[in-house]
Every structure is written in C-alpha cells, then in structure tokens.
Amino acid sequence: MKKNILAVLGVALIVSCGTNQQKDQEFMVLKGATAYDGNGGVISNSVVIIREGKIEAIGDSSLEIHGNSTQIDLSGKFIAPGLVDAHVHFAQTGFFDGRPDALDLRDSIDYNMLQSHLQNYPDRYYESYLRSGVTAVYDVGGYPWSIGLQVSAEYNLNAPHVAAAGPLITPVSDQNLLPLNTPGQKQLVNLRSPEFGRQVVRQNSSLGSTGIKIWQIALDDPVFMEGLRAVADEVALQGNKLIVHATGLDQAKEALRLGAKVLVHSVDDQPVDEEFITLAKQAGALYCPTLVVMRGYFNAFKSLKGGFLLEDPNNTVDVDTRKLIQSATLFYDYLPNPEGYSSMITNYESYVNSLEKTMAENIMRVHQAGIPIAVSTDAGNPGTLHGISIYDEMEAMQQAGIPAADILVMATKNGARTMEREGDFGTLEAGKMADLIVLDADPAADIRNMRSISHVMRGGLLRPVDQPFEDNPKDE
C-alpha cells in the first residue's frame, strides 16, 4: 500500500481509510482549528469543507459534513488564508547580483546570464514562497517575461498565484539604466516623451499587465511630468491601474492626484498630512509600506564582512541564493571604497534607523485614517529574500503599532485586492480557492506566531512546510 500522506502531514485522520480510499473521497474536511477568515472574523472549532480545489463551505462545528469525505483533525491549531506578498521582483535574487546599481558584481557574476536563467527558470523562488505560507505574489516591476508568469503559475500547485506589472517607467536616463537592463530586454524604460509613455502603457497592457509601474517621480522635470500625465491618461484609457514608487510626500501626493491606485513603499521623508490622507481616500489607493527593504540592504552590505542573519528553520530559501549569501565575504573587494567600509556601515545604519522611524509613524497614521494597507516586502532586493521576508515585514508592522489581527487582513484580503484577485482568494469563503495555511500558534495574538506555520494548502493540496515538496510522498 502507498504511504499515507495524511500521516506525513502530522495531523490526525478522523475517518479510517487507506490511500486508495482517500483518492476516492469527494471532499476534504479540515476540522477543529480556530479559523481566521481574512475579513476580520474568527471561527472557533471551525469546519472547512474543500472540494476540487475550492472551499465548498466554512462554518463552526454545527456545519454539516458530507459522508464521502476525508476528515483531518486540526484541534488546537489555527487556520488563515494563504499570505499575499504585494511587492516582489522575480528578476532579483535577494543579493547584489540582481542589483548591479547597488554593488556591481558583473565581473564575477554575469548579469545577462543571470537574467536569462531567471527567465528560463522562473520557478526558482516558487517553493520558497509556498513553504513560507505565501500563496500569491505581485511582481510590481520586471522584464516583459514576468507578465507571462500570471498564466503559467496559475494552475501550477507548486507555484503561488502571480500578478505582474512588467517593465517600469522612470525619469532615469537610458545611460544610467544600462546596468539594470539586458541587450535583449528592458525592465526599466526612460520616459522620453508623452507618446513613448503611451506606447509603453499600450504594450504592457496588451501583454496582460496588472498595473503600470512608475519608478520615481521627477517633480522638477517638466518634460517628464508632461509624459507622466500622458501615461496616467493612457492607463485609464486602457482600463489598467497606476502603480507608483514614491517615497517622498510631495511625490506621493502628485501620484495620487494622477489617480495612482497603489503606492509602493512608505512615505519616508516627512510625516504624511491631511492632504495626503484626503488624496489617498479620493483615489481609493492602497498603501504598500515595504518597511524592511532598506534594513535588508544594510544587512546585505554588512554580510560582506560575514554573518548574514538567516532565520530559515524550514530551509525554504532556494539553494542558489543560500550559497550566495553564505559566500558574501568573497565580494567585499567589489566595494568602491573598501577602506571606508566601517564608516559607511555606521552612517548607513543611522540612515536606515531614521527612515524606519518615519515609516513606522506614517504607517500608523495611514492605518488610523482607514486607508487600506497591504503587506509587501520588495523581495528580491539585496537582503530581502523571497518567501521568508514576509515574516520580517509583518513583525515590523506590529512593532510600529498595528494589531496582529489587523495585519492578518492586510496580509491576505488586502493583498488579494492589490492583485485584483479579491474574488478568487485572500479570504476563507465558500466558492473561493482553497489557499490557506495551518499554524501551531495564534497569529492574531502575536504576528510572530506566523513563523509557527506547519502546512500550506494551494488549490486544495495540503503539504507540510518543513520539507522540500519533492520529498513529499507522491502517488505511484
């Protein structure tokens, strides 16, 4: 007889049956856990009925259970919707090889070959996300190939759902963009004219992009601003949405005036004010704070002298990235000024501390004003690793003062809303996809308990997170 997968899951099987019988069961029932539905509701002693990859019904212990079902006892455990990371980049690795503008390693690691590899093997980070409990991600800026992941990943139960914006529009010159582009494809394009901006919007939209991303706003450049207004107009004509990287308050306000629906990154130069709050509400914008990404850069630079702090007890980080960060000291001499390293680290830490203080204060103002916030990490940037960085981000949000129960909604429902997939996942409701996580400790009591995840379900397939998927039992 083939090995019983439910035994491997470490949860008790209520109905006695062998593997062949389980295959014949029409329903899977998760029973007994405390369930957080993603809408802010909680169900004690819950029953979740799953059929053909979707939630058939959810309720308390009074919910009728079909006889033809496999029942899994989760008493004492907790269930939440699968997490959503609303800001990632598949064209970046989590180390400097993916960001030569931050530290140029191209003499050692060929950037063009790296991007070709990432295009050919986009699944490099899929398992890192799923085994971290992240069942959906939003790539808000990358090469054109990233848009195609929306289709290729959708029915792949070894992949998170993907939304993607594709190439970014920026005031940065073509010359300065050279390190970040390849001869064959561009992930960033200079906005050189209004008509060119409209052309980029039409091209990305025709490929199926979920959003048009602006990377920085040059308020003092009248040529760029004229082009940006044309871009915003074309985005509306194409039925797409405007996403803006705006860390300055004045930039963020202008983005909102232009109708931005998603602000990626926190305002970090000064406190947000009432005008910002009003503009954000009028635009119906979501706020994606990425509180940990600058700390990630700091940790990556610090690792050049050794000791990258990697809290990954389930070994979810992909092998290539793990090797890079473990050998970070080999790249110390690539620093432009190695002699000034100590001063650079000291000054950079002070800078990051100041940014984090402002970002924390602003996220609380935004939250208290009722502006929706979506958990977002900017994963792929140096030091912000795919998958596991979601825990750092949620914990930073809690440290800023946001209650854990509210962060649960921000990490699920609001992330799905940002991806325009709120009707498909993000909450535990009948008719939605069976994407969820099982935890040993209560995430609403302390968001750090998200690290107690034991299992992830994607499309009705439930698996433990403490072992690679390839090691899970498979039907013969």
How do the strands and helices of this protein lay out in sequence?
Elements: H1 5-8, E1 12-13, H2 19-24, E2 27-31, E3 34-36, E4 42-43, E5 47-51, E6 54-59, E7 69-73, E8 78-81, E9 83-88, H3 111-120, H4 126-130, E10 134-139, H5 145-152, E11 161-164, E12 168-170, H6 174-177, E13 188-190, H7 194-207, E14 212-215, H8 222-237, E15 242-245, H9 249-257, E16 262-264, H10 274-283, E17 286-288, H11 293-302, H12 319-326, H13 341-368, H14 389-400, H15 404-410, H16 413-418, E18 436-439, E19 453-458, E20 461-464
Provide keyphrases for this structure.
476 residues, 5-stranded mixed β-sheet, Urease, subunit C, domain 1, 16 helices, alpha/beta, disordered N terminus, TIM Barrel, 6-stranded mixed β-sheet
Verbal overview:
This protein is an alpha/beta fold and 476 residues long. The chain has two domains: 5-81 and 426-471, Urease, subunit C, domain 1 (Roll), CATH 2.30.40; 83-296 and 342-418, TIM Barrel. The chain is built from 16 helices and 20 strands. The chain has helices at 5-8, 19-24, 111-120, 126-130, 145-152, 174-177, 194-207, 222-237, 249-257, 274-283, 293-302, 319-326, 341-368, 389-400, 404-410, 413-418; strands spanning 12-13, 27-31, 34-36, 42-43, 47-51, 54-59, 69-73, 78-81, 83-88, 134-139, 161-164, 168-170, 188-190, 212-215, 242-245, 262-264, 286-288, 436-439, 453-458, 461-464. Strands 4-3-8-18-19-20 form a six-stranded mixed sheet, with no helix packed on it. A five-stranded mixed sheet has the order 1-7-2-5-6, with no helix packed on it. A four-stranded parallel sheet has the order 14-15-16-17. Strand 14 (212-215), helix 8 and strand 15 form a beta-alpha-beta unit. Helix 7 (194-207) runs parallel beside helix 8 (222-237), helix 9 (249-257) runs parallel beside helix 10 and helix 13 (341-368) packs across helix 14 (389-400). The chain starts with a helix and ends in a 12-residue tail after the last strand.
